[in-house]
Amino acid sequence: MTSATRSATQSLAAATRVSYAGKYSTGRIAAEVLKYAIVITLAVSYAFPLYWMISSALKDDPQVYRIPPVLVPNPAHWENFINAWKSDNFTLYTFNSIFRYALPYTLFTLFSSSIVAYGFSRIRWPGRDKLFYLCIGTMLIPYTVTMVPLFIIFKQLHWTGTYLPMVVPALFGNAFFIFMLRQFFMTLPEELAEAARIDGAGELGIFFRIILPLSRPALAVVALFAFMGTWNDYLGPLIYINKYTMYPLALGIQKLRAMMSQVGNAPLAYPYLMAVSTIAAAPIIIIFFFAQRTFIEGIALTGLKG
Amino acid sequence: MAVAVANRRRLSKGETRNLITGLLFVSPWLLGFLIWTLYPLVSSLYYSFTRYDLVRPAIWIGLDNFREIFTDDPRFWTVVYNTLYYVGLSVPLGVVTAFLMASLLNTKLVLRSTFRAIFYVPSIVPAVCSAMVWLFIYNNQYGVINNFLRAMGRPIIPFLSSVEWAKPSLIIISLWAQGTAVVIFLAALQDVPRSLYEAATVDGANAFHRFWHITIPMCSPIILYNLVMSLIGAFQTFLMPYLLTNGGPMASTEFYAMNLYRQAFEFFRMGKACALAWIMAVLVAILTAILFRTSGRWVFYGGGER
What is the pTM of this model? Predict the structure, then answer.
């Protein structure tokens, strides 16, 4: 069987009957053309919104007004990025996003989730698997159910207005990351830990000196997802952060939008909004292109054994 | 089972030590579960029977919140209708399109990883950035689609400002940002053994038969997983309607999570918000249970030959 036929067997577009004998039969060519037509149409429509975000960031007023729309801005106004950035305290918001939220959260959850994952995978103890199922089961609880009671707790602790309600729970591990790390720890050979155990190493020593160094790829996935989740988070800060000086970038963007629509300067508001949005999305997109495999494998893993 | 055995006979010294070490390792999660999940769940149930505005102490009012929600709050039924409309369309559409997109990516395709990246990236950019772009794209005056329609002399589409269009417009965004499901499906498709397709081809099955009788059954556990996850997710849709329409026009995009957020953080009716949360939790649990119940009929577990 040729590889061409084999791939055709999986081709959805080849729902048109594939002729078994002819590699270049009309049916097969038609199916291929149809397949590429669908994929390219989909790709263009999926890519368009982000393309529109970046290209509109470079436009000036008349280019936003023009009918039919300007697809490629000419001239491109690169200064929009600087002016938009200066139109509010975006440097401070970015600082808050990174140092008050994303970084502490990521470090805390890396540490706690990997310790817990070790307990769920590398030590055998009665009741372990039951507790582990409970742990993954919590992922099914809708966050809206705990949103309000958690707010009441943090209100009573006087933690509202700070990032503590978002960052402190990261010290207790995250079910999703625990699951990912556990799956990874289970694949590590037992011999290394066994040898260390004979040499008198305790579990903590094995965890820090053997398991963690071997788990860098998995830890990278967790760090990536944790950073992305916090950088992108809107709801957490929306509920808990109430001072502009504490705003993360996500809330800052919405604040810019509110400001612009108040001033009534709608057309120029859009290039500025698009410029700031582009800057906020850029780190995520850049990280994705550098770590594409890590991302894809991490995501794929969550679906498989779930 | 391990617990049962452990209870029946006394644990050996080594087993006891393992139990203690294991529990110590998972103790961060266990503590976190008690503090950030179990206690909020229980207290939320308590608050749902009270009137509580965060300032004055909670007052026990029995079933009054539930009575009000079901019999004396016309907005509730609008919100339920909106949510069921949104869930009923976006979940099946999303799962079907994500599966078809993954199937396309699973064929022999030039630039496959580029297409995969194009489909995936919209799901990882910060939601607030996507919201700003779609706000701009859907805008009546400056939006790209409407400006093309104007250029062609056609009437504009009031994407976000008409009752008929607002919900479909939001569903389109949810279909755009479903790259995660596509990647999970793609991983599942790549795990289907080639030999099954080869055997079927020898038996004379065409591409459609192979897709229907091999691909779908072999991927059905993952289809169920994505169905459940997107069901839970769709019930909690908050950010896009909050940022794009703020529930309007005429409450046509006020979905469940938004109504709950409003009750809690705009009207400070914590008790009613908790009651709403529990009603939703029960509803989601019932729907998930139905999915799992009926899944016996269409989900195929176990690999190998059938």
Answer: 0.88
